[in-house]
Amino acid sequence: MKEKIRNLWKEVKKNKESYFLLLPYFILFFTFVVIPVIVGIILSFTNYNIIQAPRFVGWNNYKRLFLEDDVFLIALQNTFKFALITGPLSYFACLFFAWLINELPPKIRSVLTLLYYAPALSSAIFFIWTYIFSGDVYGLLNGFLMNLGIIKEPIYWLQDSRINLYVLMVVQLWMSLGTSFLAFIAGFQTIDRSLYEAAAVDGIRNRWQELWYITLPSMKPQLIFGAIMQVTSSFAVADISAQLIGFPSPLYSAHTIVLHMWDYGSIRYEMGYASAIAVILFLITVGINQGVRRIIRPD
Amino acid sequence: MKRINRSIWGNIIVIIVLTIVAIFMALPLVYSIMNAFKPLDELFLFPPRLFVRRPTLKNFTDLFYLMSNSFVPFSRYLFNSIFISLVSTFGHVMIASMAAYPLAKHRFPGSRFLFNLVVFSLMFSGYVTNIPRFIIMAKLRLLDTYFSLILPYIGATLGLFLMKQFMEQIPDSYIESARIDGANEFKIWWYVVMPNVKPAWLTLILFAFRDTWNDTYTPALYLHNEAMKPFSLALTYIQQGGFVRAGAAAAAAILMMLPSLIIFILTQSNVVETMKSAGIKE
């Protein structure tokens, strides 16, 4: 045992330059990522209002979340509904469009990449959807549909609690060809061209087979990276809901886990309770991400 | 090269699909650009029109007027944004790549553990850490300072991850020969590794700048002093201003988007090259 520690120390000393290079980043990373996760987990078992010292309350926050807090259950439901629809859809859209764009001539390819990526580039721009989906006759979509005679009365796209979550999904999909989309485009370009030649000789007959047997297996790292980015972002939806529909939304129809956390954390100052919400979100995203990794990389 | 060709019909379908999606993606952008140049009466025309008929710059002048009359002058918001975005982008690119080099190329106790920690933290969104982070900021007495925004951005995870994946592709022989020539690890990082991963840090500049420039959530949380707040936050106030400010809000959105767009166009070819090596290797 002592021998082991001495060897380890020797190794550490030999590599002190490596540690020196790591130091600045990991000080910040630990202060603002690792320690907050640990502190958050601890706080979730307390009552804490910032002014008084935290008071330990055991599992109370969690019990309250699942047994008493109806709004949280709505938020949980909405978040899952939202993530399970937009997550896979936008993941496959990223993959599909990256695949199609990749085969185009370079000039057209860069124009289309810019066009498809632009909505993800700025968070200020999705504001325009409030005009498109505006509930009165001046809304672009209502005006358009009324002009065509499809609807007679304007539809309250963002206020109607039965449809506003779906309207939100459309906006999210519009914005979702982001980081993973670029990763996929790059992934397609790295694939060894000779693989395709070999495949053609071996009897691959069409583009779909080519995609399934050669292209996708060769870009597994990008596929996993894209999946993680997609899961993480689709479970963390909050901003577009608050900005397009309002906070709180009518009948909490577009309430999400992050918004619920925001409500208790920044408005009611119930930090312990808000931390419990954060821990649940953490467990959900990490759990699903691990599952997704297992599916994409079965070995 | 021998490659299976799509049928002519296949090509036509692909072009139609790509065009329809391109229109769906572009329409809101075109609409917001058009709105930014519409006079007020055209903004609330019925039936609404997509294209502007009598373009005007009034929305932009309104915006500047609105902002110059606010409690904090327009230029101050702009300065805050530029300062915060530039310093944190620069810091993140430097410090994350400095840490990425040993993780990619050295073997030492703890290297795997530290990298796995970073991969793990990619799996949950930043919202999860917000509350404890706020408390830590308060304890460190960093609230209401530029540091409260800049330091966490510098310690962000995506950059370290991308840089490490990319640096792994540099041949070991480059590094070996520099070592034989007597360079220390810091010099190798700066003179050998960094020039070889130029596309990677160009990409990182795009991502880091985009994220800091657009962020409205963290500034709202950590900054209470109006004079410290960034442009992005000031613009959300204008966007919430309702009908009267509809034109100014559209103009604001365009202004907000412009810097990221320019950086994207400048770095695009390099971005694609970097992303080739993104991905999680175990």
From TrEMBL, chain A:
This is ABC transporter, membrane spanning protein (Sugar). PROSITE patterns: ABC_TM1 (PS50928). The lineage of its organism: Bacteria, Pseudomonadati, Dictyoglomota, Dictyoglomia, Dictyoglomales. One of its GO terms (biological process) is transmembrane transport. The keyword Cell membrane applies. GO terms for cellular component: plasma membrane. Keywords: Cell membrane, Membrane, Transmembrane, Transmembrane helix, Transport. Gene3D superfamilies: MetI-like. Signal peptide: none annotated. Belongs to the binding-protein-dependent transport system permease family. InterPro entries: ABC_transporter_permease (IPR051393), MetI-like (IPR000515), MetI-like_sf (IPR035906). It is found in: Cell membrane. The keyword Acetylation does not apply.
TrEMBL record, chain B:
Pfam families: BPD_transp_1. It is found in: Cell membrane. Its main location: membrane. Residues 78-267 form the ABC transmembrane type-1 domain. One of its GO terms (cellular component) is plasma membrane. It is a multi-pass membrane protein. Belongs to the binding-protein-dependent transport system permease family. PANTHER family: ABC TRANSPORTER PERMEASE PROTEIN MG189-RELATED-RELATED, BINDING-PROTEIN-DEPENDENT TRANSPORT SYSTEMS INNER MEMBRANE COMPONENT. GO terms for biological process: transmembrane transport. Keywords: Cell membrane, Membrane, Sugar transport, Transmembrane, Transmembrane helix, Transport. It comes from Dictyoglomus thermophilum (strain ATCC 35947 / DSM 3960 / H-6-12). This is Sugar transport system permease protein, putative.
